[in-house]
Amino acid sequence: MVLAASVNGYCQSVRTDTIGFSVFFKQGRSEIDMSYRDNGRNLNSFADTIAALEDDPLANIKYIYVEGAASPEGASDYNQALSERRSESIKRWLVKNTPLMEGQIRTSSIGVDWDGLAALVAETEWEYSDTIVSLIRNTPLWISRNGQVVDGRKKRLMDLEGGKPWRWMLDSLYPELRQGGADVKCYVIRIPDPLVFRDTVRISTTDTIYVGTPAAPQPYIALEPIFAVRTNLLAPLMNVGVEVPLGNRWSVGADWYYTWAWRKWFKELDMTNCLQMLAGGIDVRYWLGSRHTPDSYNRRNRLWGHSVGAFFYSGYYDFEYDYKGYQGEFTNVGLDYVYGARIGRRHGLRMELSLGIGWIHSKAREYNVYTAGGNAFRTGVVKNVNWIGPTKAGISLVVPINRKVRYEHDETSY
Q1: pTM of the full predicted structure?
Q2: Domains of the chain, earliest start first
Q3: By the 8 A CB rule, do 313 and 332 touch?
Q4: pLDDT tens string 190-199
């Protein structure tokens, strides 16, 4: 009796949700243009939703359904092929930019979007609207006689009232259908938090018997970055850095630059130019957006997204060009902006783009070199260098080091 009551309540509470949106294509095209209409916003928002669902222990993505379509103009074979290419284009984008696997994505191509056309006509108050909708819904796509196609839905639409409705749709409605192209739907099975299912059984006395026992809260596992290692690709193999989160909003980082690795290479080429720097710095960062609120569920979002920070760098340099150069120490203080994007599935690699504006101060000591690769002789000239402007730029590859954290499920974290 206890088992029956619990299972019955559980099954009734499981539900399937549908998340859907449309992707728009330019006329005759099957490539996704992220800047066209709302494509960029819709696709990126859907990718974020899929990532969140993958991390949600109470949600299971059943499958993704992509249905491509085209407008009624043109040959039917061409429209069918175009709608197929549009579906496959969306499927490739989803596999590349979300944690979804190919087997989770189902594609279909309906060719001409007759249902979409009927819906658009039904919304108008034109004198032929009802006739057109009835013709679309009740006329077969093809009408054959003795094995030959002699009539069909499209032909009857084109012949209706001497072609007047067809020309009207061509000018007024088909532009909207041309800009359509595919619908994407995600079917998600959601399991709610464990509930206490309580049945009341009435018997001959006034007693009330409660059937069922409270279910234990379901814990879930999250991957929390404990620190991240990074390298600035603008100084390949010459830089290494580390960043440590201080909660969900704050982090502190340190970087080390050692471009002296070029020194031997320059000398072996017997060149008269030199670009060498030895520097280190620290930065403090504040991460923006709702994904970095103190909720425990946001631990997985540490160290990626939008952020602003302050930095301090100091070091030594040696720059030479055509037998003349400068050596000196420098300090660099300023503010920067960083955007970190995930380039791997779920908790994989990340890429950071950074740009900083600050103040650089240095005393540059001038020197001359009289033979290629020879000794430097100072001239005694010292220049005070002060620069305010862009002083920091980076395209960094970031590798987060995660740990698994187990804690009780909290509805406010979702």
Answers
A1: 0.46
A2: 2-190 (3.30.1330.60), 223-413 (2.40.160)
A3: yes
A4: 655 554 444 4
